[in-house]
Amino acid sequence: MTPRQQWRPGYPVAAGVFAIGMAGTTLPTPLYGLYRQELGFSELMVTVVFAAYALGVIAVLLLAGHVSDEVGRRPVLLCALGLSAASALCFIFEGGLPALFAGRVLSGFAAGLFSGAATAAVLELAKPGQEGRAGFAATAANMGGLGCGPLLAGVLAQYAPWPLTLPFLVHLGLLAVAAVLTWLLPETVGNPRRARLRPEGLRLPPEVRGVFTPCAVAAFAGFSLLGLFTAVAPSFVSRTLGVDNLAVSGAIVCTVFLGSTLGQLLTGRLGVRRALPGGCLVLVAGLVLVSTSLAVRSLPVLVIGAVCGGIGQGLAFRAGLTAVGAAAPPAHRGGTISAFFLVAYLGISLPVVGVGALTLVLGLRGAGLAFSGCVIVLVGCVGLYVLRRPPAEE
Questions:
Q1: pLDDT class of 240 with cuts at 50, 70, 90
Q2: pLDDT for 291-346, tens place per residue?
Q3: How far apart are CA 84 and CA 65, in angstroms?
Q4: Where would one find coiled-coil regions in this protein (predicted)?
Q5: Amino acid 5: pLDDT
Q6: I need a surface site. Which of 118, 190, 262, 278 has the fewest CB within 10 A?
Q7: Where are the domains of the chain?
Q8: Nearest CA to 266 among 288, 290, 282?
Q9: Contact 260, 314 (CB under 8 A)
Q10: Each residue of 196-206: b (16+ CB within 10 Å) or e?
């Protein structure tokens, strides 16, 4: 009897693999300041390096988002873990900007594969009656993993030797454990077959367009907040608030993703009609607190703003995804959801690069204030729209 037959792990193990994989995508977050000092590049280049990750995710969503439906979940998860390991090696043997870009693009490829295959594996491994818990496990693994990456890297970089190497060595060890667990996972796709990489296209049927636009704009705005914290929050904390502890920077970024996890949990209790406008309102409040923290240079206010903004992002994102998925006809649901994620990941990249460009003119503090003001207006308009025209419940 093989080990896989002796022990058949369920959805919690798949969620753990998901979390380990996603943690690697945010591992460099508190380290960008160290790279900037070592290589001598600007804040704008930090945001461009970060945005390379989102380009990798988008490329995979467009080209290979369907692959795990054909070849099976386990091979795609193993491939994603391999890409995560290759990304870590790029950072371990980093020799300049090209290696950083390569590491971030590979990390984006891995995240793009994880987002579909791991989510599906977690849901499909749930036994009857466990569907609700499995859905939350997938959400918690995604956002929790993204939050744990900066926390792990910040603590190791601050209190352990080799700050630019040890976090990635530790993650390589976790990836090895995740690979073993993935090999033991039951395959949930019947009759796997060879897949061909081909652009799937983004289908947006007419009946979903009225719901899609406000939901996708809310997702864009919420992900732009996540992108801001993931790319440049450590620089804000260090250069604007005067806190140089990398563990503190990593913990602050972690709070945004923990807030998002909490917001997504609350969405199920509030329902889509209340969660979407409510999430926009809470996101606006979080952005106001973040901009206030920059104006008055207050770390506690920044932390409260991070939690509040994360909750708002989580509420709006899950509500929007639920509404879009419910409105899309079954034949076009996959393409519609892919389009939704594409808009969201544009939000995590394009505005952040804009912030980096603004730092050259306005400085970090001024760029952060300008960013917050623009997103507040955007989210406020979306919130008012969905308050007047709430989407239907699933």
A1: confident
A2: 999 888 899 999 999 999 999 999 998 888 888 877 877 656 666 777 888 888 88
A3: 17
A4: none
A5: 46
A6: 190
A7: 1-187, 204-394
A8: 282
A9: yes
A10: eeeeeebbbee
Residue 127: both structure tokens together = 């036994």
User: Which residue type does 18 have?
Assistant: F
- What tokens were used for 207? 């009946």
Cβ neighbours of residue 211 under 8 Å, at least 6 residues apart? 323, 324, 327, 391, 392
For 204-394, give the CATH class.
mainly alpha
For residue 84, what are its two tokens? 């995560």
How many Cβ atoms sit within 10 Å of the Cβ of residue 339? 22
Q: CATH topology for 1-187?
A: Growth Hormone; Chain: A; (1.20.1250)
Give per-residue pLDDT as tens, 27-82.
999 998 899 888 888 878 888 888 889 889 888 888 876 677 778 889 999 999 99
Burial (Cβ within 10 Å: 0-12, 13-18, ≥19) of residue 180: exposed
Q: By CB neighbour count within 10 A (0-12 exposed, 13-18 middle, 19+ buried), where does 43 fall?
A: buried
E strands, 27-153, are: none
Burial of 267 (0-12, 13-18, 19+ CB in 10 A): buried
- The model's pLDDT over 275-293, given as tens digits with 9 standing for 90+, comes to 888 999 999 999 999 999 9
Query: Which DSSP category does 160 fall into?
Result: S
Give the span between the Cα atoms of 367 and 337, in whole angstroms.
32
The answer to whether 51 and 349 are in contact (CB under 8 A) is: yes
| 8 A C-beta contact, residue 20 and residue 88 | no
Give, as one character, the DSSP assignment of residue 27: T
pLDDT one-digit tens code per residue, 71-120: 888 999 999 999 999 999 999 998 788 999 999 999 999 998 888 788 88
CA–CA dist 19, 210 (Å, integer): 34
Give 185: exposed, middle or buried? Use CB within 10 Å, 0-12, 13-18, 19+.
buried
Backbone angles phi, psi at 199, to 5 degrees: -60, 125
